Amino acid sequence: MQPETPGTKELSDIWPASPQARPHPSRPLKRIRPPSFSPANLWEAGNEVLRYRDLLITLSLHRLKVRYKQSALGWAWAILQPLSLMLIYTVIFSVVAKMPTGGVPYSLFVYSALLPWTYFATIVTTAAGCLVLHSQLITKVYFPREILPFTYVIAAFFDFLIAAALMGGMLIYYHTSLNRNALYLIPILILITILGTALALVLSALQVRVRDIGLAMPLLMQLWMFATPVVYPLSAVPARLRAIYILNPLVGAIENFRRVLIQGLGPDFPSLYLTAAVSIIAFPIAYLFFKRKESSMADII
User: Fold this and answer.
1) pLDDT score for 67
2) Cα separation of 262 and 149, whole Å?
3) Residue 289, exposed/middle/buried by CB under 10 A (0-12, 13-18, 19+)?
4) Among the listed ranges 15-19, 120-124, 237-241, which one has the minimum average pLDDT value?
5) Is pLDDT of 5 > 50?
6) pLDDT per residue over 66-110, tens digit each?
């Protein structure tokens, strides 16, 4: 008989063999361990989220109910943020300093970019701290941890829909009609969602270990906004810097969103393809990174 290795226990020593002795004999034992980086594990993680879809729906509805609970303006806050920024930038860049917009009213020009930018920024900033915010839930019960950032993505999308209503009113006010190129808004919005979700997964997993991320997010997002053609057109970027500038994956998304919405033109496919490539590659990598860090979240948080 071989001696028992010190410090190790058999699973039968932890969970008695008798089903009656287990606290919940009908529940399977879930072992959380770091997965390898493989498409099979990504597929398995996706299927697990589907099995917990009721929890995803419940938490998402709860997030929407409490998002602006006990606030005087309620859901109007979803419009107030991009609207206030639009008014500030309109005064600065159409009165104080003239910004070329190709004949488009500046308020319409900037709001058409603030709308997708605010959606992206809301996903990243709110979902980045969701694991730390719900630490008690994570340490008490098992569920796929990515459900938490996913609920913030859903809540940000509803904010986007509310803010988009103001965009519709502005299009009517400025007599701007849509054409069939506006259909490209759907894939552009999907790419923004994928990219924002990928970044939210990475940042939320990292913030469990490095709390400085939450403090740095407002500054980082502000710098990123000015590195993206939100308050100015892409044509304002010097030609010698444009090849480097468009490596920012949001450049293609924001510029094309405005291009197809208020200019009625087809998208600039080279920049949009770059956004699509970064988003499609980044999401599975970010998801697997999140699942790999998931195994130790409850111990560190």
Assistant:
1) 76
2) 32
3) middle
4) 15-19
5) no
6) 777 766 667 777 788 888 888 888 888 877 777 888 888 999 999
- φ, ψ for residue 81 (rounded to 5)? -65, -55
Which are the contacts of 78, defined by CB distance < 8 A and separation ≥ 6? Answer: 158, 159, 160, 162, 163
Percent pLDDT > 90 in the chain is 47
Sign of CA dihedral 71, 73, 76, 81: negative
Contacts for 240-247: CB closer than 8 Å, 24+ residues apart: 246/271, 246/274, 247/274
- CA dist 209 and 253 (Å) reads 31
Query: H-helix or E-strand containing 131?
Result: helix 130-133
Percentages (nearest 5) of helix, strand, coil residues in the chain: 70, 0, 30
Average pLDDT over every residue of 51-65: 89
Please state the rounded mean pLDDT for residues 240-256: 93
| Amino acid letter, 59 | L
Question: How far apart (Å, rounded) are the C-alpha atoms in residues 43 and 299?
Answer: 26
Both tokens assigned to 295: 């195994």
Q: Residue 35: its pLDDT value, please?
A: 57
With tokens 């002795």, the residue in question is 21
Stretch (H or E) spanning 204: helix 185-207
CB atoms within 10 A of CB 171: 18
Tokens linked to 77: 């806050």
